[in-house]
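Hi Y.,

Following your request, here is the sequence exactly as I used it, all 113 residues.
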Amino acid sequence: MLKHGAWMVKDLNKALEDVISVIMKSDDYQTCLKLKEKMKKNKELMELIEKLKLEQKDFVRNGYQSKDKINELQEKLYQIPIYVIYMQHLEKVNDMICYIEDDLNHYFYQLFN
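Below is the corresponding structure, written out as tokens. Let me know if you'd prefer a different format.
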């Protein structure tokens, strides 16, 4: 039984590696990487992104009180075309990941219940 279990884990790991590989080779993921490199060269854009991250952390730390500053920063970011395109591709990549996550959750639920 132990050998069978180890074989199953090995097959599962291989399947997960294959899925990760498909995502990483996808056009959307590759576009995200290219755009991220271009965005890194834009100091103002990177500062806005950093400010947004800090505001999001503060928002959580302060008990989800005021989202005004976050909304303001997001509005500024969504006026920058490269950021908008990056976020559109990133959303598609995240959708792929969520879809796979849902399938895995369903698989393991069926397996153990």
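The CA atoms of residues 28 and 59 lie 30 Å apart.

Thanks again,
Q.
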